[in-house]
Structure prediction request, 590 residues.
Amino acid sequence: MRRNLWLLIVVVLLVTLGPLLILNLRQSVAPAKSMLLTDPFLQLPTSNSVRVVWFTEFAGTAHLVNYGTNLQQTAVANTTKLSRTQEDQRSLVKDQKEFNQIYKRPTPRDIWRHEAEISNLEQQRIPYRVSSQREDGQVFSSKQFTLAPTPPAGQPLKILLTSDHQLMPMTAANLQKVAETIPRIDAVFLAGDLQNIPDRASEWFDDLRGGAFFPCLQGRASYTIDKNGRRTTYKGGEIIQHAPLFPATGNHEIMGRVDPNVDLDAQFNNPFPRDAAAKVYETYAPLVNPRNDPGIRREWIKNFSFNSDTFNEIFTLPTSQTGAENYYAVTFGDIRLVSLLVTNLWRTPSPGQRGRFQESQADLLNPVNWGHGQMIFEPIKKGSPQYQWLEQELRSPEFQNAKYRIVMFHHPPHSLGGNIVPPYTDPVQLVDRNLSGQIQSVRYEYPPENDYIIRDVIPLLEKHRVQLVLYGHTHIWNRFIGPTGMHFLESSNVGNTYGVYLDKQKRPMPERTLYQYAATGDPYGLPPVVPTIAPLLDEAGRPLPYISSNDITVFSILDTEAGTVSSYRFDTREPDSPVIKFDEFRLSKN
Prediction:
C-alpha cells in the first residue's frame, strides 16, 4: 500500500514538474543557441520585486527565469499571446525583402509573451537568465544579465531620457553611444513613439533594416549608416535587459480603424472619434449585435475608432484607476515620475489633403472618411478624468516629498518644431456650404486660448513645483525654462528631423484661418535656451539653441547624484568621432 502511494506521488510529480525538470536539466548541460524573439527586459520594479519579460514565436511548454547566485533560484513565467500583431504588404521581415512580396493583406503573426515576477529581492543587483522550451523539447536560453528592485531614496542613478525611436536611421547609433558613454543606465524614460505602426510586429522585433525597437535597446540591432564614403553598422545598446523601461503613450502607440482590406499604415492613419464611431455603430447594431451585448458594442466601437492594445499588451507598467497603463505615476529612487497620455492624431499641414486644417475635397460627401482634424485621444483639460487624477497625484506625499519631480508626456508644450502647431485643443469643425446647401469645404480651427496644455496642465505643474517636463514629437533637441524655473526638455533627435521654425523658416499654414497660428519660434513666447557647453554654430558662427539634424544624434542623461541633466551629441558622418557633451543644467532642489 505504501509502495503504491509513493509510485502515485512520483507519477504526479513527473506529470506536473516534468517540463521544468527537463528544462533545468538541459540548462545545466548546454544551453542551446538563443532562438528567442527578444532578450529579456525589466518591467514594473517594486521595493522587493521586478518583472522579467521576453517574447518567442512559439507557445512552448515551459518558460523560466533562473536567477541569483549560480542561477540556482527559479521563477516560472506566465504566457500570453499578443492579440493584434500582424505583418502586411509593407512589412520588411523574414522572406519579404520587398514590399508586397509575400503578404498581400494584413496577416496575423503569432507571438507569445512570457512574464515572470522575481520577488523577495534585497537591495543588490543579481544575475539572471531566461529559458524557453519549445514543443519539440528544444530549449533556448538568453545570455546572463542583471536585475534589481526599485532603488531606495539616496542611491545615485543615471536615467536615459529619450523619445521618438520609430526605426529612425540614427536610433541604433544613438543607443550604442549611450551604452558606450554611460556604462550602467538605471532606467529609461521614453516620451512616446517607440515605433511607427504598433500592430506591425516586425517593427517591434525583427525588421530587416536592422533597427526594430527591441533590438536597438538590447544591443541586437544591425543598422548600417553609409555617409562620407564610410559604412558603419550599429548594434544599439544592451540597456533594458538591466534597466526598467518606462514609456509614455505617443501618437505612434495608437492604431486607428481596423480594416483587413487595407495595409496597416492605412489603418494607423485612419482613427475616428469615439462618439462618431458610436453613431455609426447604431446603423450596424441590428446586424453585428442583435442581442445587444455591451461587450460586442465596446469592441465594435473600439475597432471602428482607435486602440492602444498592442502597446498595452507588450508592456507591464504602473497603472492608474482611470487611465490603466496609459497614464501612471511611479517612484524610482529619488524620482517621482508622472507619465501622461497627452497626444493627438498627427495630420499633414499640407493644403488640399485630409489634414490638420481641412478635409479632402474628394471626401466631402462621405463623412465616414473624414479625418476630424488633429483629434485628441484622451482628454487632459480641466475637469477630465486624467486631469483630476493628475491633480490628485501632484498633491500626494509621494510626489511632494520626492527629491526630483518629473512629468513626461509626448506632445510638446514648448518647441521650435512644426508639430506644436496648431494648439493642443479639440478641433472646431467649420462646414462651408453654397446657397443650395451643398458642402464646399470642411475646415478645422484650434482656438489658441483653449490650448489644454498651456491653459490647464502647465499652471498645475508650476503650482506643485514640477522641476522637469520631458516630451518629444518634433524630432529635435531644444529646451526652455518657464517663469517659475520649471525646465522643458525635448530630446528626440534620434533620426529624421522635421526641421525647426526660427527666423526665416516658417511652419506650413493654410491660406484661410480664423486665428493667427505661430509660424516661427515657440508659439507661447518662451525663448529657447542656448546649450551651455558646446552648442552647434550656424554659418555666421552664432550658437544655435537647438539640434535639428539627420546626421547628428542626441541623447540626454539625468544624474540624480549631481542633480543634473546632461545632453550629448554624436556625428554619424564621422563614426570615429567622440561623443560630445554639449549642454547641462541643474534641477532645482525640493
Summary: Confidence is low (pLDDT under 50) at residues 1-33.
